[in-house]
Amino acid sequence: MTRTRGLAAWVGQGRPVTAKGVLRRAEVAAVAAELGVAVPAWVRTAADVEVIHRPWVASEALGLIRLEANRAVAVPASQGDPLEQWWTAVSAVLRAESHDRRRVGAAVLCRTVLTVLAMDPPPPVADLEETVRDVLRGLDYRDHAAVVESFRRDGVPVDAGRQLLAEIGAVDRGGRLSPLGRWMLERIVAETPPPVTADLSAAEVLGRLVKLPEDEVWQQAVPWLRQRDTGQAAADLLAAASTAAPAERVVAVEVVAGIGEPAVPAWRRALEDPMLAPHVRSVLGGLDGIAEPGSADGQWLAVEFALAALATEGPQEAYLVLQDLHGLEAVAAGRHPGTATLRDALADLIAAGGPAVPTYQLKIALVRMRQPVWRRLLLPATVTLDALHRLIQVAFDWDGDHLHRFTVDGRRYADPFFPLDGCADESRVRLSKVLPRVNGSMSYVYDMGDWWEHQIRVEKIIEPNGLTGPRCIDGQGDAPVEDWSPDCGREPTPFDAAAINRRFAELDDVTSAMPM
């Protein structure tokens, strides 16, 4: 924490950063001298120098520095609980040192080391590494694999975990667990969702699944389902969902929908339940004997999904979900029993006409092109990734006939109707969530065969400015021909911002739900 504060003070009015938002290599020697730390004579990037990059990550997490287009500036420190500030900094560093898709490897390793050190008595120092390895072997295979990918070391990096714990004060100079380390162990265990085990009831399963990232829900549910008759498991989950909170009910519906044909009898019985019938018609509407969802179902489900968002992400996301689903009028209709709760929670936002939404300036460039091909777009920070996909399709004149995938920070997102392995639902993720700051970047691949890869970078985050729709403001290069062959008869599409913007205006299903 001393280095973190010292680094922020050194940054002061501004220091240059790379496109990835880290210190330039030329600045390493100066900041090392300021912090009193030793660094190698030559470094590839400042991100490789742990004694500098960890305080950098912590400073950003604590809001002590702010990244702008090509520099970082210091921000006055806010007052707060020192222990909570320490945990915020440590959590950011653990995530930065985790290179698995879920970004949990370093936390799992440190939790394991702390657990071993908390044994009574703890193992001898000479046996610590082997004891940690033994505990790791008993973990879920995904957690074990995540540990191997942490700290950019070969094998299981037990020493790297011990060194970090010593650096942050969780382990004392003698290698013993400190009081801070005991507190950290309790906190990290409390924040780790427990696994779904075969002995849990359906209600307990929903309580655990609702705490997981969306792309992990099915992975955790499958072992529980395998221990049961599939049709009965579907019935049990829907029965538990009937009296559950909206967030848990939404999870239940998603899991049962993934079961497929064996769940149909349970779905049909659920038509008799007023808390489940709108979901049933939404999932199976048009199947023999099951009506298509009507406008009343749409309003009911808009409130249901907004309540789920309220519980897991807060009022602003709940309001945006309502807006995405054209469901603001549903709050007045009051068909859902939770409408009053939602109305009270969103009263201020409704009165203000919604949250103030910043504008993102994105540069989207095709990679590995001989001549540069890129487009610069302005769009709301709250646009979902599925909407961004459709905007990219227009901006580069793609036909939309192939699969696509976003990848950011190790996580993948795609169209749930054409599921790709390991991908979460792109329609549930907003741009501001996956790229919260300037210089953040992600990739977008269109056509898994021809592999048209686009690099998306946040150039600016602009305060709410009255933008009335997505807009292309600049670009370069002709859009390449999709599925080209010598006799296809097509030519590349020249860049034309006005034509792109006319097509943007025609995307009613995208732009009508965009808050401005």
Number of DSSP helical runs: 24
Which structural class fits the helix and strand makeup? alpha+beta
**What is the averaged pLDDT score?**
91
**Strands of the largest sheet, in order across it?**
8-7-6-9-10-4-5-11
Number of strands: 11
The residue fraction in helices comes out at 40-55%
Given the C-alpha coordinates, what overall shape results? globular
Distance between the termini: 39 Å
Contiguous uncertain segments of 5+ residues = none
**DSSP strand (E) fraction?**
5-15%
Rg computed from alpha carbons, rounded to a whole number of angstroms: 25 Å
Largest sheet: 8 strands, mixed
Short description:
The chain is α+β, with helices and mostly antiparallel strands.
Description:
The chain has 516 residues and is α+β, with helices and mostly antiparallel strands. It has an eight-stranded mixed sheet. Strands 1-3-2 form a three-stranded antiparallel sheet. Strand 9 and strand 10 form a beta hairpin.
